[in-house]
Design a protein that fits this description.
This protein is of the alpha/beta class. It folds into two domains: 159 residues, HAD superfamily/HAD-like (Rossmann fold); 66 residues, Alpha-Beta Plaits, CATH 3.30.70. 32% of the residues lie in helices and 22% in strands. The chain has an eight-stranded mixed β-sheet, sandwiched between helices. Strands 6-7-9-8 form a four-stranded antiparallel β-sheet, with helices on one face. Helix 7 links the parallel strand 10 and strand 11. Helix 4 packs antiparallel against helix 5 and helix 6 runs parallel beside helix 7. The longest helix is centred in the middle third of the chain and has 15 residues. The chain is globular and about 55 Å long. Bound molecules: magnesium ion (MG). Magnesium ion binds next to loops.
Length: 244
Amino acid sequence: MPSLPPPPRLQELTSTHRIALFLDCDGTLIELAPGPDEVHLPGYLPAGLAALSRTLEGRLAIVSGRSVDWLHAAGFGAHVLAGTHGTELWWPGIGLDRAARPAGLDEVDAAFHTFAAERPGVIVERKALAAGLHFRKVPAQGDAALTLAGKLARLTGLELQPGKMMVELRAPGGSKGTAASALMARHPFTGAMPVFVGDDITDEEGFVAVARAGGFGIAVGERDSAAASYHLPDVAAVHRWLML
Ligand SMILES: [Mg+2]
């Protein structure tokens, strides 16, 4: 259980600092769900985030392993989005900055679908720049899924990214850290004190990046964090901290 203290109140932070917020999505803003498309967005979330973003003069971004397409469909398109671990960036009013779909991804997609077809409950998530295999409904298939993903990573040169009850292969080069750094280099985030909030192991690189830039990370949930400064216990606590 993390021994980190709770973060300072957001109101105090915004009254003394020009902060920027980088928010992970699953497990941070929304509860983890059995399947990748079974997530539930509380009705107050979009309007709450929009109001918060206005308070921060637009310095609020969603930094997620989800694709920008998914984040749009889920209703986050009004915000700056760093999707698929920073390999895609969406700027409202400007557009999408996305790398080319890497070679080998169609092959991975096909292999994942074959694997899932033989194992009811395993779900394939198709993204522009990645392919995910979810086994939350059948945790016993986790080892086999990881073995397959590892083999395909060696075959294709794609990056292996384990997550919570899932694994994915994606375009190499991105991380939550490179995503946070790319955002901090651009208006309106430049010069602000960055705060990164996330629940998963992949968020650690985001915590390191914002700490290097004079900010701090907030780890969410049960997982111990080496790089965060503060801790919030769950999604509901994140919503309270954000005053949503
Ligand atoms: Mg997460």
